[in-house]
Amino acid sequence: MCMKTRIGRSAATSAGIAILLLGNASFAAADIDDPSAETAVRESTTLYYDKGGRARTSLKTRTDDHYDPLATDGPRTKPREAIGSAKTSTSSAQAKGSDDFWIFYADVQLFADDDNDGYFYGIDVLFDADTIYEVADVYAVLYLSYEGGPWNEYAATETFSIHGATSDDEFVVVTELRSGYPTGSYDLLIEIYDTFDGAFVAEMGPEHNSGLGFLPLEDFNRDDPRRGDDHHHHHGGGPVDWPSAVLLGLIAAASRLRRRGGRSF
Question: Model's pTM, two decimal places?
Fold first, then answer.
């Protein structure tokens, strides 16, 4: 569930903090990447582009999101509602979607690996949703699954329009995972909902597109730049175009500055 406010922290005395640090330093060092130790909300920043594809000619909106802790245990349940957004589906029984809508193409590019360990905290998702109608208003909900576990919503778009089966309405979702995502392998799922009645109409996940599976991710807090200075990119399918390569390079450079007080986005 998406949380709109940060969780507050209770006050503690200096002596209490010192005791806590001394008593649990070794535990924290050993379990920072243990998903069972996750208790904090997930935090991320997302940019949404509704025109121009990865040329990014039209920034639709930017959000700072707070979600419940990552669900890691249990079966990979199939979400049929935009659980954490205000756009909750009223027709979640339509589990099979609609023949009138489909996702023609989706591509994932990962960026921002400051410690050069092969795990990234930046996710760039491009997808092209199509319909039999001349125009339709929809919204998308994106999910991550940690090591084959339950789906966790991590982004939800505002309403955008798709026009028949053209490729001119590609939508791009660029997210920086800031906290709450342990180092590991993630799968990604895109679901499309009809804004008219909130009905689920289409999806694309790793079973439809292998490029949406086995994504090496971790959050910004786990990415330690002291481990290395090189950067590399992971692609879920398709080459990186020149404008995207330049933009991703700028984002990575800005990330280093943010560690000194700046921000990536």
Answer: 0.72
